[in-house]
């Protein structure tokens, strides 16, 4: 899958719930990749401005022409909410890799009793039928430990950057956090970075 010596062609699919910061996380990882010398194409697949709606975006590394990703094409799925990870599985290629939060944010249909939220066991089991690796992390809990629940997104980004699957590592993400995030958010996000890296190897 090498495009050139420096460029590694990768397709990453992000999915989460409105209000979680999924698009902010996409932008941060895109900037990290750009600063690391990668050819980057990013775009929103589907988004709803209101809190609670599904938000999906893509990040393509290594010289793609458009931010288009079809079913069964993503090399990596980043799920910021476990049910959305499950719903996003059709986008993952067989043998792809999943990094997901294990902290549920039940949709309105579940809150109203019109639908049931699947168990984490079921979500993980179905994920393993498609993916070669699955990493389900306690992102919210680790984010709170780092100083802010929203820093849970950085836990997930840190895990994927520490995995060795991307053409850049955890140091590139650290530099991007220091460069692009507001000063008041940096301490919690840098701590979340450490916790995400550690959680991957537990």
UniProtKB/TrEMBL annotation:
Keyword line: Oxidoreductase, Pyruvate
EC number in record: 1.2.7.8
Keyword Cell wall biogenesis/degradation included in the entry's annotation: no
Protein name in the entry: Indolepyruvate oxidoreductase subunit IorB
Highest taxon, organism lineage: Bacteria
Pfam (any one): POR
Molecular function as annotated in GO: indolepyruvate ferredoxin oxidoreductase activity
Domain Pyruvate/ketoisovalerate oxidoreductase catalytic: 18-196
